[in-house]
Amino acid sequence: MWRYRAVLPLAAGERPVTLGEGATPLLDAPRLAEDIGVRRLLIKDEALNPTASFKARGMSAAVTRALAHRVPGLVVPTAGNAGAAMAAYAAAAGLPARVFAPETTPANILATIRALGATLVTVPGHIGDAGRAARAFAAESGYFDVSTLREPYRIEGKKTMGLELAEQLGWRYPDAIVYPTGGGTGLIGMWKVFAEMAEWGWIGADARRPRMIVAQAEGCAPIVRAFAAHAERAQPWESPSTHASGLRVPGPLGDRLILRALYESGGDAGAVSEDAIRRDTATLARTTGVDAAPEGGCALAVARMLVAAGRIDRDSEVLVFNTGSGASYRT
């Protein structure tokens, strides 16, 4: 992703902390397109990043800046993949790291965090509880808190997904992007960079930007509920529950920015059941060869639901994000 360094937070002469993140494939999936009933379906497979998720992009940018500012250490709360990514980039930077994760985080991801040398603290509850513990530790230790949207750099790394997909499509956009949304930094970052590309002249200012579509689980769908109510903010979800741990974010800090992207793009939001997530996680893997995480299965299931409901036009080119690896969830 650092080939885009001219538009990333990197000082002249500075070397990024990188493990080779970015340049993930954009895959045409004609059988899936026929299955759900759209003209074309594309899969952006972020599982092929270092640490097996899209979180590598944001952590590369955040840890690069943290190292430049000579912080004493790094701390993050995580639903799983962010903690693994932070641990990896902290190791590459030579910085101590502490990760706070819910006890229900997939065991493989917790093992990865430990293997990469971070101090792992598991807490009862959900990521909001981990976040409170992480902020308390940051306040007492002076460690740099790289929580979602509590620093400005992870968004800058995540926006490279938007740069890449436009480049891979010949500097144009798909009709719709279906994005599995927990904290929502990926969606926010892409919407930010679509405006920036128009400003820079990379894509014509009159180019129609894609409809941004949020995919969530029925057991934790604060953005879907807020969008249905035409609200500007999302109220925290009570008793969040889903096996797609990256979606188990009851009160996303970026709710206002996520919803703004949906409204400005003429987008949409949908939530599906646990059975639908499991079904389409398997469908995605067995139809395309992509070892999808349940978050990717959720995105496909929401796309399927919205096409069937007439909320995505059948003549559309739809891009679905798989944000992580299915292997991370298997024991």
Protein architecture, described:
This protein folds into 2 domains: 227 residues, Rossmann fold (3-Layer(aba) Sandwich); 99 residues, Rossmann fold (3-Layer(aba) Sandwich). Helices cover 41% and strands 15% of the residues. It has 12 helices and 10 strands. The strands form 2 sheets. The protein has a 6-stranded mixed beta sheet with strand order 1-2-10-7-8-9, sandwiched between helices. A 4-stranded parallel beta sheet has the order 5-4-3-6, with helices on both faces. Helix 3 links the parallel strand 3 and strand 4. The mean pLDDT is 96.
How many structural domains?
Answer: 2
Which parts are unreliable, with pLDDT below 50 for 5 consecutive residues or more? none
Just give the CATH class of the largest domain.
Answer: Alpha Beta
Main beta-sheet strand count, sense and barrel state: 6 strands, mixed
Q: What is the N-to-C succession of helices and strands? A: EHEHEHEHEHEHHEHEHHEHHE
| Percent of residues in helices | 40-55%
The total count of strands amounts to 10
Assembly of the depicted chains:
single chain
| CATH fold type of the largest domain | Rossmann fold
Structural class: alpha/beta
How far apart are the termini? 31 Å
Q: Mind telling me the C-alpha Rg?
A: 18 Å
Sequence of strands across the biggest β-sheet: 1-2-10-7-8-9
CATH arch. level architecture of the largest domain: 3-Layer(aba) Sandwich
What proportion strand?
Answer: 5-15%
The number of helical runs is 12
**Shape label:** globular
- Mean pLDDT across every amino acid position: 96
